[in-house]
Amino acid sequence: MPVTKGKLDLLSYDFLHKRNMLFGTPEYVIDKIKELKSELNLQNLQVWSNFPGVKHKDCMKSIKMFTKKVIPHFKDDIDTEVKKVS
Q1: Average pLDDT rounded to a whole number, residues 5-30
Q2: Are 19 and 32 in contact (CB under 8 A)?
Q3: How confident is the model at residue 39, as a pLDDT?
Q4: 42 has pLDDT over 90
Q5: Where are the domains of the chain?
Q6: Band of pLDDT at residue 7, cut at 50, 70 and 90
Q7: CA distance 39 to 6
Q8: Do 4 and 41 form a contact (C-beta atoms < 8 A)?
Q9: How far is it, in rounded angstroms, from Cα 36 to Cα 4?
Q10: d(CA 11, CA 52)
């Protein structure tokens, strides 16, 4: 398990409010994920794309953009095969 001593102390409301929802351009999301990795030793990321009220086509567009433009920037961090979840 990676060393995280003292990192959990950073989890204040003000810290999380700006970081817990990653919306924006692929570049913005990439930068925020890198920031979380650096500051908190981020090991896992949960992606939720189907918010209530979002059209299916927009949800799919978001997922495709994330997989094509964001995930490749972290390919060295992925140590297992990504499996399709249905």
Answers
A1: 76
A2: yes
A3: 84
A4: no
A5: 7-77
A6: low
A7: 11
A8: yes
A9: 13
A10: 27
